[in-house]
Design goal:
The chain has 529 residues and is α/β, with parallel strands linked by helices. The chain has helices spanning 38-49, 63-74, 117-124, 132-139, 159-172, 187-191, 206-210, 230-233, 236-244, 261-269, 330-345, 350-358, 387-394, 414-420, 435-444, 464-467, 472-486, 508-528; strands spanning 30-34, 53-58, 79-82, 93-94, 100-101, 105-108, 129-130, 149-154, 177-181, 199-203, 219-222, 253-257, 277-281, 290-294, 297-300, 312-316, 368-373, 376-380, 400-404, 424-429, 450-451, 492-495.
Length: 529
Amino acid sequence: MTGEQTPEPPREPSVLPDLRGWDAEWKGLRAVVAGLGVSGFSAADTLAELGVHVTVLEGRNTEKQQNDAATLKIVGVTEVRLGSEHTGSLPQVPDAEGTLAVPDLLVTSPGWRPDSTLIAQAREQGVPVWSEIELAWRLGTRPGAKNPDWLVLTGTNGKTTTVMMLESMLIADGRRAIACGNVGVPVLDAIRDPEGFDALAVELSSFQLHYTERLNPLASAVLNIAEDHVDWHGSFEGYRADKAKIFENTQVACVYNAEEKLTEDMVAEADVQEGCRAIGFTTQTPGLSMLGLVDDILVDRAFLADRSRQALELGALADFGLTGQGGAPQHLVANTLAAAALARAAGVEPASIRQAILDYEPGDHRIQPVAKSGDVLWINDSKATNPHAAAASLRSFTDIVWIAGGLPKGVVYDELVAEIAPRLRQVILIGADSSQLRSSLERHAPSVPIIGPGVRDDESELSAEKLRSTDGDAAMRAAVAEAARLAQPGQTVLMAPAAASMDQFESYGHRGQAFIDAVAELMDSREDH
């Protein structure tokens, strides 16, 4: 569809509208960068290159942060303050002469909540608060480099799978493209590439969108929307509103999930550019201006002239190469169709989409088979950090020993438990406090035995303390040992926590690896005997 219309010029931001482009009046401004993670480092580095006086605040003071701080000082960052004593409030920061004043700008990493004192004080004092995405969009590509198409997506689940599939489709079509944003490299690193890219496949979290005023993407997508991060956003309505910002100002196509009306409503409410189309995707037979599934064929009824009578074939379920694992799961097909819709909006050929499907390899920690022994299948779905994500794997199996629990992030489990209760044979709870999930299980799955903190279980040989230990590796070994004791032939031990991991693990990846390691130890011990 690229080339069928002339996009409108980008709409000017309402806050500090003159700060657009590399030649804007950045030099001499004071900026605070909150957080020294990957995105914070990139933001501080970029601002220093622009001649901004940058002060970085980071609550951690580990060897890695100290090394990063030393590097940033070499490239011109004014000051890096490490330690929690520096993150409790908005500081006055120095300019080149050392004169202290309120910063002109705060660029925040996604982890900083809107109700944190630092962010609240910035708002009260009229200091603009940006994500690194906002900064990247305002700067645009480095002068002399290619100006890429921005293809952006968000959703409660499936973002990383979709953005990596989108990157593969673009590359298969001969484009210089890169996955960036909430996955891969920071967007600021991508736009500073000396050569530039033909397209950016940008994954955006709700946190990044919250602190982003407005983008100007070629195409945008919301994969799905379900209750998540309610504690951070304050309500589901706040979470939904931040996700919906991704559609604003889109040029060619707003891609929505035709099986979730909320995402279609977001498109209807969005202020888009003239000529922008609403494009649906579905795992059922597609209607006009949709991509979908006809029998076992992925088809496009949106990006062709005679879409009322024809459809373009994009690939087949067999192309995923997962027949030995029960075929391509529904969520993977949906994510692929969403990626294809974004790719087609950028003019990618159907053959390139099929090639990306053929090249697809399942990622770690997402419905990942780990072992099979004694006719018991062990599955790692550590990436299921909320009920919506866990539902996809729970629906894929029938007789389940479920290892679940962790930080609930303010979500409610009743709907999930009521749906999957008939599939459950046993639940093993991990997590420092899984009382919300336990309560839902007791109400909606009363006949399913539960082992874990707060549950009376005279048969268990494990203490609840092990399962809720802050030593995540020990907790996971205890959960796996208990699952091995309970699982019967023909059942699946599924580790799909439906919660965040930070109460016991460094990340969902750490949690998944702890499960893999514990299962491997179990398999080794059985071989020894």
